[in-house]
Amino acid sequence: MNFSSGERAFSAKEVVDCALVRGEIDPLWKDFLRVAECDRLANERELEVDESALDSAATAFRYKHDLITAEETERWLEDRGVSLAEFSEYFGRQYWGRSYSGTLDPPKSSYQTASADKFGGRACPVFGGGED
Predict the structure, then answer these.
(1) What's the rounded Cα separation, in Å, for the pair 99 and 115?
(2) Domain coordinates of the chain in residue numbers?
(3) How far is residue 26's CA from residue 29's CA, in Å, rounded to a whole number?
(4) Measured between alpha carbons, how far is residue 29 from residues 9, 75, 101 in Å?
(5) Beta-carbon contacts of residue 100 (< 8 Å; ≥ 6 apart)
(6) How crowded is residue 41: how many other Cβ atoms within 10 Å of its Cβ?
(7) Per residue in 3-39, pLDDT tens?
(8) pLDDT number for residue 119
């Protein structure tokens, strides 16, 4: 994937490297680890998710990204290599990140040292923070 600014194109790696140098990755990474730990613990404890909250969050996301129909949403996901299950799981993680109130002890790894395998092969969250 390439990004551009004026005449200059940047790879995803260059964008991430720049964010690392600027110190912009660490806060996002720490929040990602916290949310992942909330989700893990909620699932481990078999807590019940509020399905209407997930539906509302998914609908808000779709409208924010001008994805009005199911077909538009499926195409958007396919273009990014994201399955419908991963899309739904994202909202579950975000729900528990906001709602889980138990004790947390998230991993202390940095973005640079984290294993992509530990997070399903994805070090970067697909839906967070981006404008596209």
Answers:
(1) 27
(2) 24-119
(3) 5
(4) 25, 28, 20
(5) 38, 39, 41, 42, 47
(6) 17
(7) 888 888 888 888 888 888 898 988 999 999 999 999 9
(8) 52
